[in-house]
Amino acid sequence: MKNKMKNIFIVASCFAAITCFSACDDWTEVENVNINTPGIEEQDPAAYAKYLQNLVAYKNSDHKVVYAWFDNREKTPFSRGQHISDAPDSLDVISMMYPAELAAFELVDMQTVHAKGTKVVYTISFDKIQKEYTEKVKEGMEIGSFDTYLKSEMDKQIGYAGSFDGMITEYKGNNPIYMSAEQKAEAKKYQDIFFSAVSAWKTANADKLLTFQGYPENLIEQTVLANCKHIILATDNVTDDAQLSVFARLAMAAAGVPTDRFVVAVSTTSLDASDKQTGFYGTDRALTEAAYWTTEPSDGYTRAGLAIYNVQNDYYNATNTYQYVKEAIHIMNPAPKK
Predict the structure, then answer these.
(1) Nearest to residue 163, comparing CAs of 121, 205, 199?
(2) Between the chain's N and C termini, which has fewer beta carbons within 10 Å?
């Protein structure tokens, strides 16, 4: 593990140091020029192959995991920041926010990150489906009962899975402790529809990744968590790192919730410089503080890693692309020292 991690960071540093220049003299008119700048994989294929081997081995080792949600709504990219292939190599899982109708370049990018051991998934959200249904009802659309709508949406969205390495299933809902018997029965009915579809998919795709996101304490007699690689807690809107521990304690207090796989969610900062709340704990960068939180000891549960919203925002830094994401990964999984 020590040598593998050392090789990863040494080779990655070498990649960053390689710069290619080209010049052209004595032209008489302006014309389109295709510039092919060779990467390290072309300049030194053997070194790059070794780098990929070490990278994959690292991701298969025991380490703090990193999930990232990537906004892939742009299907005609005009920046490298819109390519998942330019995201940090050490990301373990990338969730594409718009999984339907992937563009050709996205399929190519997916193959590129697969070679690095990164899994590409997408998220199915119960809460989003329920919100969309409610809005359609308000608009007077004839869409039938929520049961029917939910089943239809699950069939459609699970149909995206063929192009991906797995899925994240999001369920927030409401705490059943505060429900009447009638409300609890209704909530369980909808949970059963949602998670029955998910469980059927997982049974048929045992080799693919399944992760839960949301409030596990709001599940009613659900066993799906046992088949989930990680449990991502809905902490992206908390205002300080102390609340991360509170959410973990609430989750572990619920019956049947595995406590050895908690991942906390955090957002990068906004591209709007006037937004001083998104991605901050007070005046501190939330991503950095949450990364340090994962390294601290805990009693009764495992701090397994981070899930990062709006990861693509961190591409746009003046000094270093993905500067703070890379910093967070290094905090959680530091390169070994001699």
Answers:
(1) 121
(2) C
